[in-house]
């Protein structure tokens, strides 16, 4: 396939034309080339399609109406997820046009929360493979498997080993649903051409007994490979990627809390790479907190922040908060001391032995707890909230209902406008529901969530009010960061790029423009925000010497050239190869 005119343009080009060498059923089976009933008669004749399609030549608009009717008839989110996945596998243009026109409705289906259920039942709903499955038993053939990639012009890879899928834990090969979903968001939110995206699953086994006992499980039926063998496997993978796709952006997704920071530290200076669970989550959360503190007329460094959860996401959030505080003029040590992390064993402090390396930076000095209950006791969330009197409460724990009425009311007793972010996904793992948070704080809380929720209707004296709930969705950040990086072929992705993205997203908050606005915009604005983020990230890459210089006009043109809009190009017959 050779795109000869108008490649990657921001708007459909009338003269865009593709040279295509496949015909007949093979053409209908290619999801990037298939137009289904929208093949015009001239192309039906040229490509041997006469008789293979109904007589009427549909428009793309007609196909969207038909597809939406079929989607709307389905009774459950999982059935809708299966339908959209199947549509993506047979006609990508139609899939992306349909979802783009119904983004707010379909985003929770193709990604969180429904994608979590899709991952859990992956082996039971499997239709067609997508991307690459690199299994440990074939570890000496990784380069060969990369050569088998269905995409050979790869700009973005999203990779997972399936060990920590959302808040659901180890899903083994089912975790492949996450890279597929993330790359769909790259296209929907930033316009990255699906032809240049590649999902990869590193199959190193699973420790989930339900998956291992499932007779239909599609992954390698073996307990997880760990230690040096695991490290060597990942190293072989990265080396093969660098050889095969030297300019690719590699995104790590849903690795364990131990592996995620270790992999990021090991590879962040070797190729253009980032971890969305750490850096993307940190940036999108920072954006909401910047908005909240601005509404309150306060600085971020003036806050008392309690975080339930101390894994990779919590660390990523804390790191971004500290960097933002440093830009306010606060020293690093003082900034770290504003953050109180609570894990399953209670408050993270220096008196706990042993203490995992990833928790040491934010461990509170035991001297600060001198007037607390004896150190022999664990300081659980209710005690920490009572002692610290937080102004901000963040949940990344995957402990449903952990923000109890007791905890929230205790916080609200001491804070006029408590800021509460229950971020765990999917909704079944959320630390609290927005309706409870609004009720328990008499409508005073500033709330954002990890999964989408409808606006909350006020009660009693607040009956006339509605409280919109902003979604702290990484899709506001990582697609734009990725687009900016690949547009200028950035050699690295830096923390500064995510901080820039957070500030841009914060400026888009409806709450800054009207009193009852949400802390985050609607997902329908993601395309505009991603474009702004991409431009700023590209400029930062050039400014920091991580990309070759470009004048402003050339940079804008380069960025526009990478943005794809789903439409059907004209096809011309090429010579059969092989």
Concise summary:
This protein has 23 helices and 17 strands. The chain has helices spanning 24-28, 41-46, 60-73, 77-90, 92-101, 103-110, 114-120, 122-125, 142-147, 177-190, 209-213, 227-244, 259-267, 276-296, 312-327, 332-337, 381-388, 405-414, 434-440, 478-487, 495-507, 526-543, 552-561, and strands spanning 2-3, 17-20, 132-135, 156-160, 197-203, 249-252, 273-275, 305-308, 339-343, 346-347, 392-395, 419-422, 446-449, 456-457, 466-467, 470-471, 570-573. The chain is globular.
DSSP E strands, number? 17
Unreliable segments of 5+ consecutive residues = 1-14
User: What is the approximate shape?
Assistant: globular
The fraction of residues assigned to DSSP E strands is 5-15%
Write down the Rg.
24 Å
Broad structural category: alpha/beta
The profile of the biggest β sheet is: 7 strands, mixed
Spatially, the strands of the biggest sheet line up as: 10-9-8-11-12-13-16
Rounded mean pLDDT is 94
Helix content: 40-55%
- Rounded to the nearest angstrom, the distance between the terminal CA atoms is 14 Å
| Number of helical elements | 23
SSE layout and pairing:
Blueprint: E1 2-3, E2 17-20, H1 24-28, H2 41-46, H3 60-73, H4 77-90, H5 92-101, H6 103-110, H7 114-120, H8 122-125, E3 132-135, H9 142-147, E4 156-160, H10 177-190, E5 197-203, H11 209-213, H12 227-244, E6 249-252, H13 259-267, E7 273-275, H14 276-296, E8 305-308, H15 312-327, H16 332-337, E9 339-343, E10 346-347, H17 381-388, E11 392-395, H18 405-414, E12 419-422, H19 434-440, E13 446-449, E14 456-457, E15 466-467, E16 470-471, H20 478-487, H21 495-507, H22 526-543, H23 552-561, E17 570-573
Parallel strand pairs: 2-17, 3-5, 4-5, 4-6, 6-7, 8-9, 8-11, 11-12, 12-13, 13-16
Antiparallel strand pairs: 1-2, 9-10, 14-15
């Amino acid at each position: 396939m050779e795109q000869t005119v108008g490649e990657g343009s921001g708007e459909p080009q009338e003269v865009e034309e593709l040279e295509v060498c496949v015909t007949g059923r093979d053409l209908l089976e290619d999801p990037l080339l298939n137009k289904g009933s929208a093949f015009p008669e001239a192309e039906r004749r040229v490509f041997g399609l006469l008789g293979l399609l109904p007589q009427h030549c549909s428009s793309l608009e007609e196909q969207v109406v038909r597809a939406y009717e079929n989607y709307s008839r389905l009774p459950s989110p999982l059935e809708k997820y299966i339908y959209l996945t199947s549509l993506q596998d047979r006609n990508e243009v139609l899939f992306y046009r349909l979802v783009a026109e119904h983004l707010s409705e379909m985003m929770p289906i193709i990604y969180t929360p429904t994608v979590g259920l899709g991952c859990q039942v992956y082996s039971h709903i499997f239709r067609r493979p997508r991307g690459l499955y690199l299994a440990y038993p074939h570890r000496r053939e990784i380069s060969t498997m990369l050569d088998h990639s269905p995409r050979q012009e790869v700009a973005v890879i999203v990779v997972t080993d399936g060990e920590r899928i959302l808040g659901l834990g180890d899903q083994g090969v089912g975790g492949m649903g996450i890279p597929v979903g993330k790359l769909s968001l790259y296209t929907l939110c930033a316009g990255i051409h699906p032809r240049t995206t590649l999902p990869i699953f590193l199959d190193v086994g699973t420790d989930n007994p339900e998956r291992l006992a499932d007779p239909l499980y599609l992954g390698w039926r073996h307990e997880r490979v760990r230690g040096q063998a695991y490290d060597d496997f990942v190293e072989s993978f990265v080396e093969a990627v660098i050889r095969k796709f030297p300019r690719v952006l590699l995104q790590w997704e849903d690795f364990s809390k131990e592996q995620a920071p270790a992999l990021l530290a090991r590879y962040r200076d070797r190729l253009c790479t980032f971890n969305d669970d750490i850096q993307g989550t940190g940036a999108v959360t920072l954006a909401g907190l910047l908005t909240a503190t601005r509404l309150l007329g306060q600085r971020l460094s003036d806050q008392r922040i309690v975080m339930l959860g101390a894994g990779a996401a919590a660390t990523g959030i804390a790191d971004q908060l500290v960097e933002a505080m440093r830009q306010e003029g606060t020293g690093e040590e003082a900034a770290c001391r504003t953050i109180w992390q609570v894990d399953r064993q209670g408050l993270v402090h220096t008196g706990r032995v042993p203490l995992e390396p990833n928790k040491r930076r934010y461990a509170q000095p035991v001297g600060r707890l001198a007037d607390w209950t004896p150190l022999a006791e664990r300081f659980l969330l209710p005690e920490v909230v009572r002692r610290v009197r937080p102004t901000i409460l963040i949940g990344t724990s995957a402990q449903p209902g952990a923000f109890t009425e007791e905890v929230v009311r205790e916080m609200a007793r001491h804070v006029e406008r408590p800021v509460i972010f229950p971020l765990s996904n999917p909704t079944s793992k959320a630390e609290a529901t927005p309706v409870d948070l609004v009720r328990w704080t008499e409508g005073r809380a500033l709330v954002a969530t990890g999964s989408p929720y409808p606006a909350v209707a006020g009660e009693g004296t607040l009956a006339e009010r509605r409280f919109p709930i902003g979604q702290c969705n990484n899709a506001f950040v990582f697609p734009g960061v990725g687009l900016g990086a690949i547009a200028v072929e950035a050699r690295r992705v830096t923390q500064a790029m995510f901080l820039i993205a957070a500030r841009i997203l914060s400026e888009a908050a409806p709450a800054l423009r009207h009193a009852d606005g949400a802390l985050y915009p609607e997902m329908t604005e993601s395309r505009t925000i991603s474009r702004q983020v991409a431009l700023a990230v590209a400029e930062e890459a050039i400014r920091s010497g991580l990309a070759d210089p470009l004048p402003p006009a050339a940079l804008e043109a380069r960025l526009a050239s990478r943005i794809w809009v789903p439409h059907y190009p004209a096809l011309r017959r090429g010579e059969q190869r092989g």
